[in-house]
Fold each of these.
Amino acid sequence: MAIVRPFKAIRPKRDKVNLVASRSYLTYSDDTLQEKLDNNPYTFLHIINPDYNKKDKKSGKEKFNLVKEKFSKFINENVLFQEEENCFYIYQQKNENNIFTGIIAATSVDDYLNGNIKIHEQTITKREEMFKDYLQTTGFNAEPVLLTYKDNQNINSIIQKKTKERSEYEFTTTNKVLHKLWKIENKEDIENIISEFKKTKNIYIADGHHRSASSSLLCQNIRKENQDYNPEDNFNFFMSYLIPESELNIINFNRLIKHTNGLTANELIYKIENNYTVLEKGKNIYYPTFKDEISMYLGGNWYSLIAHFKKYNSTSESLDPSILSANILSPILGITDEKTDENISFYDGTIPLVELKEKVDNQEYSIAFILKPIDIESLKKVADNNEIMPPKSTYIEPKLRSGVTIYKLD
C-alpha cells in the first residue's frame, strides 16, 4: 500500500517556465553557471545561488536563509505562483530516444520509513543532515524524488486521456529535450490515482536517495518536537515523480582509475586473471555485452574481462560493479572506499567511450573500466532484500528539472 496525494504546487508562470526550469546546479561548469546567472534573471539557479555576485558568500544556514528570501522574492514578483487547488501533475520528457511520462505527487514519509518505498543505495549521514537543514530553513522542495512502480493500466489510462489535451507547459531545453506538464484537477481522476497507488505493494527509489532520506529526517525531528503533530501536514510528505518501470531508462556508470598501484600492464593483467578471463580486443573501442563481462582500456589496448563463475551470497554481490570492486579495485588497485578515494572517478554511460579513451591516452587516468547497465529486476531484488549496491552503480533517466513544480513543506 502506497499513499500519494495531490498538492498545491508553487510553479512558474506559463510564459516564464522555460526560463525558470534548470538542471541541478552541480551539473553546470563554473563558466556556464556564471553565464546563466548573469543573463537569465528568471532561472531557478538564482534562488539556490542568491549571493553569486557577492564577494562575501555565506554558507550553511545563513546561505539557506538567503535562498528562502530569494524564493519569496520570486513569488512576490509573480515569477512563481501557488496553485489554488490540490492537483496531481503529469510531467513528460521527450528526447530523440525516449519518452518518459509520470505523475508528480506528494508521497508519504511513513511509506519510506516502513519500507513500502524501497532503497537500493546507501546515503551519507553528513549529506542527509545538510539537506535536512536546507529543507527546514527554506521550507520547500523543488526537485522531485524519482520513484518507479509496476505498470498499472488504470493509471496509464488516466495519463493517456489527459495527455491528449493541451498541456499547461510545453518547452524545449538546450539539450533538445521537450518538456510538457498537465494538471489533473478532476476529482474522480484524483481519487482513482490515490486508490490505485493504495493497491501498489512496493515503490522503488530510482534517483534521489539523499532527498528522500533528508525529508524523512526532517519529518522525524518535527514529530519529536511536537507530539501532537497533524499527520496531514505537508512535512509528512515529500514531492516525487512516479514513473512506471517500463519507461525507466537505466544507464551504466563507468570507472576511471588514476594509477595502476605500481604495477606494469602485464603484472596487472596477470593479477586480474585470477578472477577474470582476459581477452585482448585491440585498439578499437570494445563495449561489453556478455554476462559478467566488463571491458578495460589500458596501455592503448581494449580488453574483455569475463568474471569466473561463482555462487554469490546476495544479488548485489553478483552485479558487475560489486564484482569489479571485490576482485580488482580493492585487492589489486587499493581502492577500498569508492565514495571517498580520489583515485577513482565515475562517468555515466551517456558520455561517449571515445572521450573516456582520450582521458587515458592523455594520461589523465591510467585505466578505464566499462560496465553494462543494471536491469530493473536486479535493482528491485537488491531493494527487496535490503541490500546496497556500490556507489554510482546506476545512472537513471529521466533527469528532472528544478523549479517546474515546488512543494511547500509548511
Note: The longest strand covers residues 99-108.
Amino acid sequence: MYRADHIGSLLRPKELRDAPESIEIQNKCILDVLRRQQELGFKIFTDGEFRRRSFMADFYDSVEGLDMDGSIARAWQGGTGSSRLTGIVVEKIRQKRRLAKHELEFLKQQAPGDIKMTLPTANQFPAIAYKKGLSERAYSTYSQFLWDVVPIIKAEIEALVREGARYIQIDAPRYSYYVDPKWRRYLHDEMGIEIESALDEAIRVDNACIQDAKRDGVTFGIHLCRGNHKSQWYAEGGYDPIAEKLFNELNVDTFLLEYDSERAGTLEPLRFVPAGKTVVLGLVSSKVPQLELQQDVIRRIEEASRYVPLEALALSPQCGFASSFEGNVLSEDEQWRKLNLVAETARQIWRVD
C-alpha cells in the first residue's frame, strides 16, 4: 500500500496557467511537482494532471461525436462560481487517439518512483453528456451510450498497465448521484432511471473496464467524491445507501473515499468493506486553505480503524486540488502544507519511511 496517497491533480502554477498549451512549460512544471512529491516522502507520483483542462479532458480530446460548445449552464454549491456543460453527445462516438499515452511516456522517463495514472470512469460521461432532446439522434438510451464508452476506457487501462503504470485510479464522482436524495430524484423523475438497476449497471461497467487489466503488482483504486470545482461541490450525503453493494461488488483493490466534512456522512459505512480491500481516507480537505490539525486527522483514522483494520487504511486529501484547470480556492503553499500533513501523519501512524 501507499500509506500517503493523493488523488492526482495539483494546482497549476502561474506560468502554466499563462501558457497552458506549451509543452516546454508543462514539462518544467511537472518536473517541479515530481520533485516536491519526492521531497515530502510520497512513494507514488502523478504529473498533477498538468496536461489536462480537467480530470476528464483526455476523453474529450480523444473522441468525436460530442458537442463542445458549452451551451448548457450548470449549478454548483458552496461558492459563487458557475460553469457550462460541454460535451453533449449528438453523434455516435468515435475514438481518434489514445487518452493518456503521452502523459505516461514522460512520467516513465522522469518519475522517481511508482506512477499513478488517473482516468475518469466510463459512468462519468452519460451522466453529464446524455441530454434528452439532443442525444437520442445518436443513442436511443442512456445505457446504449454508456456501453459505447466502455471499450475506450477499458482499452486505455489495459494499455497503461502494459506500459508500466503501477497504480490505476478511476475517478468516479457519479456514484454520488446514488447517495444524494436530490440527485436520486433527478435520476428517477427527470431521466426515468430506476435507481438500483442503474447502480448495478454502473458497477458492471467499472468492473468491465478493469477486469482484463488486473495483475500482480498493480493497484486498482476507485475515487468516490461529491464533485470538485473551484472549491464547490454538487452532491451531499453519506455512503450508506450504496456502501454494502459497492464495497463488495466493485472489483478494485482500494477505495479512495471523501471524508473531509459532514457533507460526507459518518464512517459507519466502512463496516461493509470486505477483508482484502483497502481504504484511503480522504480526511484532509483540498477545498479550503485552513490546515487541519494533525491530532484531529489521527483521531479520525483511529475511529475508522474500528471498522477497517489499521493495516488496511491509508491517508490522502479528499479530492484533487484542481479537478478543473482553474483549481480550488487555496494557494500552492497551502496545497503543499496539506500534502506534507498527509505524508507526516502517514509516517507517524504506519511507521513508513
Note: The mean pLDDT is 92.
Amino acid sequence: MSPDLCTLTACELLEGFRTQTLSPLEVTKAVLARIDALNPRLNAFNLVSDQALDEAKASEARWSSGQPKGLLDGVPVSIKDIILTRGWPTLRGSKTVNPKGPWNEDAPATARLREHGAVLIGKTTTPEFGWKGVTDSPLTGITRNPWNPDKTPGGSSGGAAVAVACGMGPLAVGTDGGGSIRIPSSFTGLFGIKPSFGRVPAWPPSPFGTVAHVGPMSRSVADAALMLSVLSLPDARDWHALPFEPRDYRAGLETGIRDLRIAYSSNLGYADVDPEVAAIVRGSIGVFTDLGARVDERHPGFENAGPIFQTHWFSGAAALIRTVKDTNLVDPGLLEVAGQGAKIGAAELMDAQMKRGALGTQMNLFHRDYDLLVTPTLAVAAFDVGQETPAKGRWTDWTPFTYPFNLTGQPAASIPCGFTKAGLPVGLQIVGPRFADALVLRAARAFESARPVKLPDLARLAP
C-alpha cells in the first residue's frame, strides 16, 4: 500500500525526493487536497498559495537534475499570518490591516525558506496580532482542534498547529511571545520549540518586544531540528540576533540523555494545575530515568512571573493599539488588555525590566545544578472554542509554565506525553539554559523515541 503522502515527515520526504521514489509535485498536490478537504471545518489557513504547484514543479526539476536548492527543497511549509511574505498580504488576523499592502518584503524566516527551496503553501490563522493563547479573530473567525473540533487548538500559532497535525504540510513557522508555539503544540499533540531569543532572526520587531520568538512546529523532533538549521541562518535586519553559528541541529540528536541532570517541577512551586494533566505529566517523567538521566523533583525557586510578564505584554498591546486608526474593528479582549497596558507608567515598566533580569539570573544559577528543567507545558487540556480561558481571567492564567521562559529567553519545547480520558493531548515542556537549543532538541528526541507522536483520526473530520 502506498504511503499517505500527507503524513510523511519532512526528513522522509527529502529522502524520497533524493531517491526519486517521491515527487515534490505529487506531495504538494496531496497537501493541497488535504487543505481543500479539512480547512473549511478547521480553519487552519486564511490564504492558500496559487503558486505552490509551480514551485513544486521547479523543485522536481532540480531533484531530477541532481541539483537540489537547499535543505528543504520541495517540502511544503506554512507561514503564520504574523510573518511577512512577499506577494501575500500579512493581515495578522485583523480587519484593521489594509490587504492591498504593498507586500514587497519577506521576513527573515520566509526568505530563508525560499532560499532553501521550500514550497510555501499559505498563511495560517492567528488571533488578532497574536495577542492571546487561543486562535480566533475578528477577521478569520474560529480555528478548531482536529482532536475535537469543539475544542480550541490553542494559539497564537493555532492555525500552524492544526495544519501540521492534519497533514497540511509537515512544517510550519510559528511565533511565540508567551507560549504561542508551545501552547498549540501541547493542545494538538505536536512538537514545537521556542528557540533561544535571537537564535532565529526576526524582522520587523514584534510590537510585544523582546519576549517574542520565531520557531518551528512539526510532527517530529528531527524535522524541527532541520527547520531550525534553516531558520537560524543570519539576517542583518535583526539587531537582536545572536552571532551566527553554522550548524546542523540534527547533528547529535541521537546521542541520548544518559547522565544528564534533570529537574522536574510539577507546578513551578505556585501554579494551579488540572489534576488529570498533572498526573499524565508525572507519569511520563520515568521515561527520562529509563533513558539514563538523573531526575530530581525540584522547583526552580522563582515567584509567580505573571505580573512581570503582563507588564511587558499589556504595555506592548497598548503601544500596538496606538497605531490602529479604527479601534471599533479590534477584538474587544485586545482592547481591554491594551487599556490596562496604557495605565502602566515608565517606573512600573522599568521595575518589571529589573525583575525580569533577576528572573534570568536565577535561572542561570539554577542551570549550574541542572542541565534541563521539565514541567507540564500547560495547566489544562484543550477547552471549548470561542473563549479565551476555561474560566474567568486572562489567557495567562492557564499558561503559567510557558511565559516565564519568554522573559528569560531560554529555549523551551513542548512534546506530547499522553492523553486525557477525553482523548485530548497533553504536552511536556523541556527547558534548557540559554543558547542550549541543541540540548533541548536532543532530550526531546530521546523522549520521542519512547513516546512517538500520534496523529488525530482525520476520517471523522472529512465531510
Note: The CA atoms of residues 107 and 203 lie 6 Å apart.
